[in-house]
């Protein structure tokens, strides 16, 4: 939890009440794992350590977990990396098409490649927009759920108070007619 983005650090109550920007929501560091997810991850690490034959000292385990995390981060493709890659490809195709003005085949190929990269870029942008929209929607739903929980708790508290007040009034009403009660208690 503490290794995450500074905006994400803190207690769960703080997280529930703050709306984070899309880039943080998209980064993946905001995910808080449930107990079952943590258990599953621990079992996977234990299984991989057992298969690799490493001794189970805390230092080797920490190094092993760090290597697994690094592998996972390498596998993840971020949208910014994809966009930079497309820009580099575009620059490369533009420089190659400028360098050889003679061949029409190469020019057609570069134009087709340019169309493909433009389409890829458009698709990636669409995916990114959709992912941002879903992240925002999930956050709004979570906040609505949180608000409804706090409102229902408040309603329950008010209901209990009003029941207590009603009970007191009924007891006073009943004590009026009790023969053994003192004058002041009535």
Structure explained in plain terms:
The chain has 186 residues and is mainly α. Among the domains are: 39-76; 77-131. The chain is 76% helix and 0% strand. It is built from 6 helices and no strands. The chain has helices spanning 12-17, 22-27, 35-52, 58-75, 79-99, 104-176. α5 (79-99) packs antiparallel against α6. The longest helix is centred in the last third of the chain and has 73 residues, at 104-176. The protein starts with 11 loop residues before the first helix and ends in a 10-residue tail after the last helix. The model has no long low-confidence stretch (mean pLDDT 75).
Distance between the termini: 60 Å
* SSE pattern: HHHHHH
Helicity range: over 70%
Report the sheet-strand fraction.
under 5%
Question: Total number of β-strand segments?
Answer: 0
Rg? 31 Å
What number is the mean pLDDT? 75
